[in-house]
Amino acid sequence: xxxxxxxxxxxxxxxxxxxxxxxxxxxxxxxxxxxxxxxxxxxxxxxxxxxxxxxxxxxxxxxxxxxxxxxxxxxxxxxxxxxxxxxxxxxxxxxxxxxxxxxxxxxxxxxxxxxxxxxxxxxxxxxxxxxxxxxxxxxxxxxxxxxxxxxxxxxxxxxxxxxxxxxxxxxxxxxxxxxxxxxxxxxxxxxxxxxxxxxxxxxxxxxxxxxxxxxxxxxxxxxxxxxxxxxxxxxxxxxxxxxxxxxxxxxxxxxxxxxxxxxxxxxxxxxxxxxxxxxxxxxxxxxxxxxxxxxxxxxxxxxxxxxxxxxxxxxxxxxxxxxxxxxxxxxxxxxxxxxxxxxxxxxxxxxxxxxxxxxxxxx
Length: 363
Description:
It contains 12 helices and 9 strands. The protein has a 9-stranded mixed beta sheet, sandwiched between helices. The protein is an alpha+beta fold. Helix 6 packs parallel to helix 7 (about 170-180) and helix 11 packs across helix 12. The chain starts with 20 loop residues before the first helix and ends in a 5-residue tail after the last helix.
């Protein structure tokens, strides 16, 4: 509540605002935690739980209408909301460590009706499964411009920051190093000279390669992988890629029900002197953002099905769902192990559990 108080009410007092802004935010957060995925659901849930909400909120004029909820999130400054979110995360978990995966996702339901679907770049702490921040990609830009803005807003010291090939840019590498962190960047055809130099090195310096081999099997699928590492000295120029320490090649072969699906080679550069096993783990962790964040937002929280499209509402509601995701994953007191989908349903059914997830106490 203290952090939410730093967000300015976007409504004009002269228009006769009736509902307390902070209370409206708490109602929305409580409803989304309780398995509500649309603004219509939020308003209906709040009306159905007015007695429960009055334990914590005054609700002088009752529950706002659906239109009021929507208007507030259309007008709410997403930068202020995002800054509040980051302060909350830093306050709760000040000593993070490990890998931060940075990746983008299009909120497909936000497109249509004359509106372009928004694309959000998120930073994800892979070892904790927590979202650390997000940045909207400008309609006339791409992830290359959004990633530096997101990195500027985050505390990165000591982290390994992994980004796919879109983020393999000198300016991004410089920013990460300047913030006393390390980078692990995928290299593809958008950096042709760098890619060719790495490919040639793995052919010419076979005697210097160190590698680790791993295999994973399950559900009729087999994935075998070899991660090979070489020192970057003499291969990658530090003037182009600051403090680059190693280059990486990952060879992977997949089989599904005994049928080979071909081999794939991927290349990376890193500013930290990583052993092959460490690189393999960091790369595997990076792709965890797909099933731990993007898949959860789509399937568990129905983000792509949302038809909220106007003004700041899609961006603000995307962040709200990430707040709920963090709340669910940070709770370690729940003795009943269940999926995030079931946790939301249990929060909808169980008043005490909902209070614990939110950290609320009666007035």
